[in-house]
């Protein structure tokens, strides 16, 4: 049985708050409602990105390559959004580099095929509970409609996502110099130097146009990670002498591990695992020294996220 808990999500693309799925399958409720307010102890999840917790640190670890790629893409889009809001040349540089990094990922992996597969899995899972009288049919159909639209957009997109960015000669010249330390200085890339000296509004418009080329990737990533992260609820656990291990149910495809630990503990979680089992070690953060595993029992919260 899979249960989903409502999570408060902030979509940085349209500056709106929304919440994600809350349902239990095959029997239970589905509620997708905007939060009435945010409180100090609210878990705030940037759509498709890393949750930001108050007085707690959240660690995430993917258990397959598909989820690992989604997390990396989401991370880079968050960087892009942050630097796009800035007015300096350095922030325009950083925003553009984030787009180039996303484009590089899209060139190496069959992202389109993987995204379509995951969307269709979600569509099948949600459709299976549509006859349940406890399900909020309006909310359910809203989510199914969003998934269907994303599937149509992906099918109608080009053969390679982000292909237009990789064919752009200006962007290619920057991408080729990026791996070289200091390789994007003005004497190496005078056209880039010229672009950086354009008015801020023009740079932002151009960056937003380039982002639009891969907007389907961004929105699909947000949707998939939002649903995945809401795929279960946190459970209180204890790591005996800093170590916790758990075998996974083969019938439930866990794709992401989330761990919340109090920031005051001065510990960080090192997570490793596969589709069969995972382990969490809580280590003492000693900058400059080899980290040691805690010798104390460590209370923490655990969520195993599955589609």
Automatic annotation (TrEMBL):
Signal peptide: none annotated. InterPro entries: ZapD, ZapD_C, ZapD_sf. Its main location: cytoplasm. It holds the Pfam family ZapD. GO terms for biological process: division septum assembly; FtsZ-dependent cytokinesis. Keywords: Cell cycle, Cell division, Cytoplasm, Septation. GO terms for cellular component: cell division site; cytoplasm. It is found in: Cytoplasm. Cell division factor that enhances FtsZ-ring assembly. Directly interacts with FtsZ and promotes bundling of FtsZ protofilaments, with a reduction in FtsZ GTPase activity. Belongs to the ZapD family. Interacts with FtsZ. This is Cell division protein ZapD. It comes from Thiolapillus brandeum. The gene is zapD.
